[in-house]
Amino acid sequence: MEGLICSKVPFQAVPSISSRPRSLIPPTQLIVRKRNSLSAFSVRAQMESKEGSATVATSSESVADALKIKEWEVAMFQDEVAASQGIRIRRRPQTGPPLHYVGPFEFRLQNEGNTPRNILEEIVWNKDVEVTQLKERKPLGKLKKELENAPPARDFLGALRAANERTGLPGLIAEVKKASPSRGILREDFDPVEVARSYEKGGAACLSVLTDEKYFKGSFENLEAIRNAGVKCPLLCKEFIVDAWQLYYARTKGADAVLLIAGVLPDLDIKYMIKICKMLGLTALVEVHDEREFDRVLGIDGIKLIGINNRNLETFKVDISNTKKLLEGECGRIVRERGIIMVGESGLFTPDDIAYVQEAGVKAVLVGESIVKQSDPGKGISNLFGKDLN
Ligand SMILES: O=P(O)(O)OC[C@@H](O)[C@@H](O)c1c[nH]c2ccccc12
Predict the structure, then answer these.
(1) Which top-rank group of organisms is this from (predicted)?
(2) In the 8-state DSSP scheme, what is residue 300?
(3) Ligand 1 centroid from CA 295, angstroms
(4) How far apart are CA 221 and CA 329, in angstroms?
(5) 100 confidence band (pLDDT: 50, 70, 90)
């Protein structure tokens, strides 16, 4: 199948794809290859001479091809819907449709769509592959059965509210975070259960446990171990959710809450996932980074907890004034009216930072780096708040 004979052929030069809406085709580099060992014609000729089973093979081959094309079209459509909502993250690489046959040639579209545009997109593409493989090993039916043995879901939102009322300070979601793509390794001697216990002792209301392995060096084993160690703080499964299957999985591993990132998930996905969360007893923390995401999320019923990430996950830029800016606008008025609990996320290091986001209107904060780096993470909490939370 080698023998690249032509590239940069204008898109219009290819007849059989012209029925596909042009808007779905990204800037294109067309790769046309001469088919040798498996030319469509030669295969067909061989099939015709053999008949019987060979004919079946041809038709199942074409069914598989048709399915692949459909899958590709659905994926493109999914991205188009997302883009119409201002979502820049594409759910999976746009490798183009499967190979098409034009006379003695086959072609495939190749373009910059095959390379992730930023780290968040790379993580999401990786997650898509990871989840597909996990699902094959443990289909939803099997997973649902495991729910029966899961430890009960605890009240994440209630714990944040209670902490806020008790201390007069934002309730703390303390993050069990070994590393991140932007900061590298945060804690060399990383014992997740030890860190979790220390956070609990230091007065954290809830914990966030990173479960992504590849980019954050987290794991579901960590989540499970913390839950099984008897830590009382409700646990947020900090994962890049791209598929409802992951919600069930998180629950079987002992999660009480999950993160839904508005910059990744279109409205319909968020709506659907919120419903499943409710069914499973999971609290959804819906994360936004800008006004447009905030506005979209407020158009969805049943959301009780929204996080404003001060870190742009596409560029890693951190700016805590983002929380203030977003809460000053019309969206801020709506959340106050509806009594939605707001969480200030990322980049919080000092008592002044905490006071600043509290002033902006958050009733909870999500903190990782500044406390996980301390030799005693629980002590890191009192340094962060400027007082002992107990
Ligand atoms: O370590 P920090 O700057 O205190 O940030 C914690 C948390 O907000 C951050 O880890 C985070 C917020 N949203 C996310 C989404 C995915 C991965 C990580 C995150």
Answers:
(1) Eukaryota
(2) S
(3) 21
(4) 41
(5) low
- pLDDT-derived band at 297 (thresholds 50, 70, 90) equals very high
Q: Residue 61: which residues within 8 A CB-CB, separation 6 or more? A: none
Are the C-beta atoms of residues 244 and 276 closer than 8 Å to each other?
yes
Which atom in ligand 1 lies closest to the alpha carbon of residue 216? 17
Question: How far, in Å, are 54, 148, 189, 213, 388 from residue 242 at the CA level?
Answer: 40, 24, 31, 16, 38
ipTM over 0.95: yes
Strands 29-34 and 4-6: antiparallel
Nearest of 343, 388, 386 to residue 367 by alpha carbon: 343
pTM over 0.90: no
Structural domain for 309, as ranges: 140-385
CA 368 to ligand 1 center in whole angstroms: 7
Residues 32 and 157 in one domain: no
Q: Kindly state if the Cβ of 347 falls inside 6 Å of ligand 1.
A: yes
Instruction: Give how many domains the chain has, as a whole number.
Output: 2
Of 260, 345, 381, the residue with max ligand 1 atoms within 8 A of its CB, to mutate for a pocket test, comes to: 345
Ligand 1: centre distance to CA 339 (Å): 24
Res 97: pLDDT: 55
CA–CA dist 285, 353 (Å, integer): 21
pLDDT confidence band for 24 (50 / 70 / 90): very low
Query: Could you tell me if residue 364 is inside a domain?
Result: yes
Q: Regarding beta strands 283-288 and 305-309, do their DSSP bridges make them parallel or antiparallel, or are they unpaired? A: parallel
DSSP structure class, residue 114: G
